[in-house]
Structures are given as C-alpha cells and as structure tokens.
Predict the 3D structure of the following.
Amino acid sequence: MTQLFQSNRSTLADCMPELVATARGDLKATLALVNVNLVNVVSGEILPGMSIAIQGSRIAYVGKDITHAIDENTKVIDGKGKYAAPGLLDGHCHIESTQLTVSEFAKAVLPLGTTGGFFDAHEISNVMGLKGLRFMLEEARTTPLAAYMQVASCVPSTHPGLETTGAFIGPEEVAEALSWGPDMIGLGEVMNFPGVVYGDDRMIREIQATLRAGKYADGHFTWKSDDWRLPVYAASGVSGDHECVTKEDVIERIRLGMYAKMRQGSAWHDVAETIKAHTESGIDTRRMMLVTDDRSSESLLREGHMNFVVRHAIAQGVKPVTAFQMATINTAERFGVARDIGSITPGSCADIILLDGNLADVDVVLTIASGQVVAENGVMTTTWEGYNIPKEAFETVHIGRQLGELDFQIVAPIADGSLVAKAIEVVENHVDTRERKVKVKVENHHVNLDSSDDLCKMGVFERHGLNGGHALGILKGLGLNIPAAIAMTVAHDSHNLTVIGNDDELMAKAGNLAAEMQGGVVMVTNDEITSFPLPVGGLMSPEPFETVALQSEAISHALIRAGCTLNNAFMTLSLLALVVIPEIRLSDKGLVRISADGIDIVPLFDAIV
C-alpha cells in the first residue's frame, strides 16, 4: 500500500536539537538502517557493519551500534549486508527533456536512486519566462526530491536577432527569481559565452546578480579547450561547465578551478571520452561530476537515470566509490549544499539508497528521501498531492495560420541549374553538427533535393504568436528512405515549431497536426500518423511516466520505419535549432553558424555551379 509523503525538509538549524538528542539516545530515531556496508563518499571508503539512525528528515547518528537511539517505535530496516550510499544527484538536468512534468519525473527517477538534482528549466523559460520557471519550482517543492532550480540565463540563448523566443529574461528577472528561496540555487548554463568573453552588458549583469545573491553560475563553453578565451570565461565567476566532450576539456576546466560535468544523456554520450581525464591522465576527481543534461522518458524506462550514468562510468575503469562521489558529494560541494545532501553523515538530509549485489552494478532496491521510504524494488511506495499546472501553460502554440506546401519550397536565386548550399549534417550521439557543402538542383526557381544524397528539408516556424516568421534549410544524414515528415515544438532553446522531411505535403500536414494539439511531436508518412502530445508548454505531457515513455518510443519506432536509424533520433533533431552549439543550425531567423569568431546568420547558398 502506498503511503502519503510528508514534505518535511527542515533546515539543520531548525531540527538540530532533536538530532543531537537522538544521537545521544534521549530521543529515539524515527527510522533506522542496520547492518549495511556504508559507501562513505567523504573518505572514499566502504565501511562494513554500519548502522544509521534517522530523526525526521535528517541523519542523527552513524556508527557500528545505534541501539541507544532506537526503541519499539522506531522503524528498523535490516540492510542484510547491502550497500548504503547517498541518494544520487544529477548535477545538470533539464526536466523538460524527459517530456515529463516534475511530479512524473520524480516518480520515474526516485526508484532508480536519484533523490535530488540541479535543474535548469530554461526550456519552459524560453516559452513562458519566469511564470514557467515558477510553476516548475512550486511543483518540485511538492515532491520528495531535493530539487534545486536554476534561473535561465539565456532567454533568448544569444539575442533576438538570431531567434525568436516566447519570453525575455535579463538581469532584473534573474535577481527576482534568485530571491524565491534557497532552492533557487543559481544561474543556468550561460550559453552566450561569446557575450561573456566580450563584455555583453546583459550577460555580465546577470552573472553579477547571481554572485551578489551568493549563488552559482553554470557554463556552456563550446570553443576548444585550449582557446585563450576559456580563462576569460572562468574569470566571470562561471564555475561549472557540462560542454566537455574530450579529456582535454575536463582537464583545462579543472585547472582553472571550474567543475567539469561529464554528460551521458540519451543522445550525447560523452563520459567514455571525458572520464579519461582521470583514468588516463590521473587528474584528481574532486571537481568531476556525472550529469545527464538531456534524457528522454524512454531512456529512463529502458536504461535508467543517474544509476545508469554511474554504472557506465564504472565500466570505463573508474573505482565504484569514486564514481559514486562524482554523483553525490562532488555535486553537492559544487553548489555549496554539502551540509545538506551528498553524503551519509550526521546532520545531513536522510537521502539514502540501498544497493544489492556488487556495488558496480548500481542495483538500487530501496530509496529513502527526506527520511521516508519512497520506493522499493523499482516501484514507488509513496504518493503526494497533485500539483495543478496553470491553464496558461497549456496554451502556448500560436502559429496563427495553416501551413501549406508552399511554406516548404526553398526559393533559389536562379531559375534553373545547380547551386552549392550549406547543409546541416547530424552527428550521431553528439550535440554538435557539421557544416557540409552540397550541390542541389534548381528548377523553376525552387530547390529540388535528390533523396539519394540523404538530404531533406528543415523549416523553423515562430510559434509564440509574435512575428510569424520562418526559415528553411537543408539537413543531411537523417536517412529517410520513404516520403516522411516529423514536426515538433520541442526545438531547443526557443522551441519554435520545427518541421523536417522529404515531402512538402507531408511536412505541412505534420506541422499543422503538431500545432492543432498545442504542442508535441508528429511523425507522418503516406501510411501512418504517429502523435506524441506535449501540451504543457509544448514540451511536457501531464500523462503518467510509463505512458509518456511509450509515446516517446512510438516516435522513435516511426522514425526507424521511415529509414532513420540514428540513436535517439528525436532528441538529436530537437537540438538542430539550438544556435549556440557548433557548427551550424537553423532558427526562425535563418541559417546560423557558430565558429571561433562568434555566432552569425549566414546565407544558405554559396555559389552557382
């Protein structure tokens, strides 16, 4: 039978007298774990035969013998020699990328051993501004998670000349959001890294507002690790960065005093390379963190969350205890909350997981959050009162018209002949793209793509009801082998309606269907339509986790049937409009190139052949 979770994350100052009384035995523990192998991430040891006494939401005593702190009213769990480790923490995560609401995300990850995280809600913020961030924060507070939110730094990710977003966040908005409580932990990834380096007033003042509030600024630096501007970026106070794809990226950031976040998302697999900074180069791990960044609901269902990432790091040759440190204490220390979370020590929040078998297997069989058993053997054992998402979050897609075939015809500067065009080439399992020069035919002033070259069209349509603009481009590497189109309102970070396909009629149909259902993903062929509604901000579904995961999986299967075999293709495609990651992207304003010189709109065509 499920129990009702009692939200009770008290501050240490408020509950300290009861903790001390329990530790000396005058007050008895509410919950106790006995006979466990303690994973001590502070000392880097495994301590056998240990016990843990919990009073309310926090740990009162850790030792070999806690009989003085328990009585017949204490709930005692016999660990039977299982490993007890701190609950896992995700040091950089966009909940919206799971397509789940915060409550359903919590229900998905708590049984997997994730008890907290640092969440950058810049997806909903690009759609709804501070109103979107506020409702996600409020919903997070109803869950058992130790959920810390970051205010989006880049709405838009660079400036309005490169893309159209549904909102704007500047220094004043950052300062306001950081005043909402201690669980507003800092500034989300500062993607406009050129703006920071070259003194953009908005970016500088946003970071200043964060530092003055005593909070933390996260980074997003995609120039090469040996670029002279990385120390400039670090000088701003940005002290953590997840855009690490090589071991050199990790090493250089750590040498500058930054925390290096090693990412294993659904479609970006960077841990195997970045972890070599430790396994090959011997760099100290104290400033290394494991994160997910973007992980789909189907990945949560089929692979897992932070448990999967920790297991993967161990498989690369990292000692199990070290890998656990990268997903617990290191993460807590990076954000200045190690007094509360990240370790099993007296005074800390009682966020604890029990693991069966070998530690390297990361087989979570019980999860305790805030001193309460919330999941056991992969199943939630608690529930909590639902959160009412505001109505305005369900009404965010405003195209203002029906799309037609003409909207997807690429007009050429010549009547007939051939042109050299810039194509966006996708890179499997990576966030970056490649700029490729391709030869395209022109007939009657319109580009006619040859499917044998694995080329298709991409269109981005402004969907916030602001200007109705759109732009078209060419995509390479999708692999479609039948007439097909996919439309989505999940298109980082401005989340305009993005339509990709090789048939203009199907592209228009897919785009209209996605708009009609107020957001989501639609895959269309001549034989079938596969829909994945995401009505909350056009990004998330209010449906249960398992339902959402299966709907997400259905889109993946539809893409495969159309010839696209890219791993987690939908997530890869959702980043093709993100104008801050090299080398080339498409926004509603046009084709955007990201280079060592900066970020600029460039023409689609290069030359007449």
